[in-house]
Amino acid sequence: MSDTEPLARAVLEACTQRGIMLATAESCTGGMIVAALTDIAGSSAVVDRGFVTYSNAAKMEMLGVSAATLDAHGAVSAKTALEMAAGALARSHAGLALSVTGIAGPDGGSAEKPVGLVWFGLARQGSQPIAEQRTFENRGRDFIRRESVRTALEMALKALQA
């Protein structure tokens, strides 16, 4: 059992109880969130799809993130995370969409946007999308990605329990 399996199970159960399908839009996690969910038998009842949009072109083409947002704020920003989540919601049959975009390292960080900076977005039918930022300790790429998966699942569970 993975360390996120209990959390993923709780998210799936909450979606099932509320009759909500879920979608993900992932950049730095490369599909790890949707994989954590779909590793569990029966997840197809509530997981609609996962978008892996690693490049800016993919974010624009698959999710409708605007070039102006990427130019002004960069891929790792609140605005991009919000547009990714809203785009996943609009381009799926889901009632809840999660997004993640960040700098997992080991390279790519700067003083303004260090390795470990990750933005999360959550969009839900009938609500304004929200974004949250975390800066994880730089304990390696795998650590940052795993913590990003955990954080996204926690965010989804919190939203589903509200």
What's the short story on this structure?
The chain has 162 residues and is an alpha/beta fold.
Helices and strands in order:
Elements: H1 5-18, E1 22-26, H2 32-38, E2 47-52, H3 56-63, H4 67-73, H5 78-90, E3 96-102, E4 117-124, E5 130-135, H6 141-161
Parallel strand pairs: 1-2, 1-3
Antiparallel strand pairs: 3-4, 4-5
Helix pairs in contact: 1-6
CATH class category? Alpha Beta
Query: What integer is the average pLDDT?
Result: 97
Q: Can you tell me the overall shape?
A: globular
CATH-level-4 superfamily name = CinA-like
CATH topology: Maf protein
Strand order of the largest sheet: 2-1-3-4-5
User: How far apart lie the N and C ends?
Assistant: 28 Å
Q: Give me the CATH architecture, please.
A: Alpha-Beta Complex
Strand runs, count: 5
Q: Beta-strand percentage?
A: 15-25%
For the biggest sheet, the summary is: 5 strands, mixed
- Fraction of residues in helices? 40-55%
Please work out how many helical segments DSSP would assign: 6
Rg over alpha carbons: 15 Å
User: Which structural class fits the helix and strand makeup?
Assistant: alpha/beta
Stretches where pLDDT is under 50 for at least 5 consecutive residues are none
Query: How many structural domains in the coordinates?
Result: 1
Order of helices and strands: HEHEHHHEEEH
Describe this structure in words.
The chain is of the alpha/beta class and 162 residues long. It has one domain (5-161): Maf protein (Alpha-Beta Complex). The protein is 43% helix and 20% strand. It is built from six helices and five strands, in the order αβαβαααβββα. The protein has helices at 5-18, 32-38, 56-63, 67-73, 78-90, 141-161, and strands spanning 22-26, 47-52, 96-102, 117-124, 130-135. Strands 2-1-3-4-5 form a five-stranded mixed β-sheet, with helices on both faces. Helix 1 (5-18) runs parallel beside helix 6 (141-161). It is globular, with a radius of gyration of 15 Å. The two termini are 28 Å apart. The model has no long low-confidence stretch (mean pLDDT 97).
